[in-house]
Structures
1.
Amino acid sequence: MKVGELAQVARCTVETVRYYEKEGLLPAPERTAANYRRYVQAHVDRLRFIRNCRALDMTHAEIRALLERIDHPAGDCRAINDLLDQHIEHVEARIGELRQLQDQLVSLRQRCRNERPIDACGILQGLAAMETEVRPPRPSHLG
Amino acid sequence: MKVGELAQVARCTVETVRYYEKEGLLPAPERTAANYRRYVQAHVDRLRFIRNCRALDMTHAEIRALLERIDHPAGDCRAINDLLDQHIEHVEARIGELRQLQDQLVSLRQRCRNERPIDACGILQGLAAMETEVRPPRPSHLG
DNA sequence: GCTTGACCCTATAGTAACTTCAGGATGTGC
DNA sequence: GCACATCCTGAAGTTACTATAGGGTCAAGC
């Protein structure tokens, strides 16, 4: 299986596949005489796993931690449960932040219902008058 | 007012202030004989405006568009209203995405209530079995 | 045998909004 | 005159890719 085919079954681009290899998430496969990557089923499974994690917005570091456990199973899966719990918290926190943001945006928007000259625009006035908040360094990686 | 003081009143770092200058969001101030930046009240107002926009998760491009209108007022403020409406939609869309994500994560988490050996971990099994989704290129910049 | 087109390769740079670092100058208090 | 905080510039690092340049491989068709 060549890289294009692998990318297709995993629904990503060939660039992403090669990138994961460089990052050490996906093991480097054998090469053909022409130096083409030659993948086997294990690569498909692993890449699917990675893409599923990414679909859940996990970072490469989080995915790496999971793969580590899979590659070197030891003890129970508590660490995995914990990782997922933390991730769920991240997402929850980010939703909360965005909700608050949304409230602010909507109330800002209501300051200018009609088309006024720029100088009278309630939105710009609101943005100028807002109490500048400390932007906490993102606790989550979710943007 | 030196850069450290400006950063303090605007609640950001001096690096951020200098970065905004390089980006053209904040105009370059006069310099002292020792080549120190010397800011005046207008800079404070502008930086506060920028930080308020950032607190609302606007991109530099969006902020630039707003500043443009402020610097060259022309016509009415319809474009500003539109920009904000679009931004509100972005945030709304992202909240929806994260909610869906959260549902998936929670149901994944429920697959492993107790501490099992790695091989039996319901979470890892779930991640391996998930139908790999096409990750749509982010329509919003909100991560 | 030759061309065309789809696919593969590497290495490098670009994205967003900063942060960090290296290496050095300035200003202030004691 | 020295320590220490603060200032300066320029370059590189962050995250997870995407894009681009410049080239090799392979199968099909003429």
2.
Amino acid sequence: MHSVQEQFRAYLAKHKLKVTRQRKTILDAFLSSPSHLSAEELYIRLRKKHPNIGYATVYRTMKLLAESGIAAERHFGDRQTRYEANTGEEHHYHLICEQCARIVEFEDTQIDLLLQKAASAHNYTLSHRRLEIYGQCPACQKK
Amino acid sequence: MHSVQEQFRAYLAKHKLKVTRQRKTILDAFLSSPSHLSAEELYIRLRKKHPNIGYATVYRTMKLLAESGIAAERHFGDRQTRYEANTGEEHHYHLICEQCARIVEFEDTQIDLLLQKAASAHNYTLSHRRLEIYGQCPACQKK
DNA sequence: GTAGTTGCAAATCATTTGCAGTAAT
DNA sequence: ATTACTGCAAATGATTTGCAACTAC
């Protein structure tokens, strides 16, 4: 099988782009970080071990990861773009606590089906979807 | 019954804010414009008839409209915040064409129900939700 | 060697804010 | 009279870009 690293290599090769030390470093950091980090947060994490890495390089590389399908861009309420690892063709939905920002990911094939139906009903094709449910997580309800 | 204008007046009064010419003008422009305009687009429309209106005033007023529940903020793929008129307690979902950006709004009580269930299943309360389906509209599929 | 890449700093884009003058209460 | 509001320009925060030095191919 192909690892994510190989997938990235293949993407770069196809587009005549180069495999650089920075790109490998950023990919590894991305894969070993919690999900939904912003480029800035990733940059801060990276700086510890790689103090000479550039802010712009992180941005540029995250963009490449998104284009190659390895990462997916997310926009939650705030202004920053966040990234999450793209687990193949499956998609999942988000349940977000308005109080503490805790995010739960879940899948739901019934919802999948209804969304597909909704698109068809309006004669749209479906390429992807975004679903976020905002509320209070169990912990915050107790407060 | 109370018109939207009255609703805005009431909100302003409750917060000891003033009913100004600009605020009335912006509210009217917002109500008589297509949905999903950004503050900038609204500003451009307004400028035709009210050349002396300030950019910042439009931003500040849209924020007020959002706080008062008259408008709802939306974030689609791009960087700008867009606004749509808030039609009471109902909510609706968006079907967005990736090619021409045409947006169809729809409601679906089955989806409503499943989202409520999904939140409950994780012991979350539900306050609001965001659902966008991206694909190609009928017209763009033919190209 | 050549073409793509990096890091920096400066630029950009959407949005926000400080402030002096103006208008609503 | 008081207190909030406006318009402008300058400030902010996230992201992008130009460019000269550098590195993968």
